[in-house]
Amino acid sequence: MPNTSLAMNTSITFLKKDFTFKKTLNQRVSAYFKENRLSPNHNPAMVVKTVVMLALFLAPFVLILTNLFPFWANLLFYFVMGVGVAGVGMSVMHDGNHAGYSANQKINRLMGLSMNLIGADAYNWKIKHNKLHHVFTNIYGKDEDINSRVILRFAFAAPLKWYHRYQHIYAWFFYALMSLSMVFGDISKRISYRKRGVTNISPKAFRRSMAWLVVSKVLYFAFIFGLPFFFTSMYWWQILLGFMVMHIATGTILSLVFQMAHVVEGPQQARPDEKGVIDDSLIVHQLRSTADFSRNNPILSWFVGGLNFQVEHHLFPRMCHVHYPAISKIVETTTREFNLPYYVNDNFGRAFLSHYRTLKKLGRVKYP
Question: What is the mean pLDDT of the chain?
């Protein structure tokens, strides 16, 4: 019997092993880098992208602080900042916190800390994303990305309520609040992880990490609210409105990109048995629970940091995303040879409609 309610401390066992597929895929990918004399980490194009993404966030803020523009123009600048925040998160922070940006771990840590620069917390993100999502992809009760939130249902194993029937209509409002929930929820999230046993650091290290989290939040709010208050003629409510515009833009972008990879038609939501056993290998589980989209759209691929190559990212999370377009051809060919799933939506429109239909189905069906 599938387990519909899995405790956070329940261990998951992936029963099968797929040494042949994994070995073949790794050999082919390694051969690609060797033959082309490439590093799996960043390249000059990635450095340029890092500068551009940070500039998308910081340059509009500098223009706001000049106090030379009317309020309506400042709102546009805040919107561009929101696009930049999403870009930094997807293209810079993401690779850094996966230790894939550089072979130098100090550089990875620095790039990962860009998460704190844009208002959230790198440590929390690594727990939520690296430890919970990447290992337990699409497993209800373990992967927080599909756990029920507020009045949203992302898993067929989650309790079905009457109001979920309308979530395909109201979900977009909550999607827009995604980055705000991270900015204001990090402290309580850190405490929750500690109580649930997700973190295993010493009490001293935990206190130190909490102190750093509080300081980083104070610095962020002083930066994002304090500087405009002291250096511009904007009223407090105008600054607050600009802040909301920025984060609504960020939240909408991030939510849509993340949902296109896992909560769409095709990818499965594995259900462990009562002992937490999944009758698959970890690598095949990643293939069964993940989808690519818009692989032939270079502009979108550039902006979303390769997150549209989500299959490749889950198989090679410590690889810089600039290599995913080339690697995807190897991954697809190898999965076909081994008769393994490889889910792709050709463009963003198809992925969006697939997510919409899945969201609607999740609001009406207990199990597919």
Answer: 93
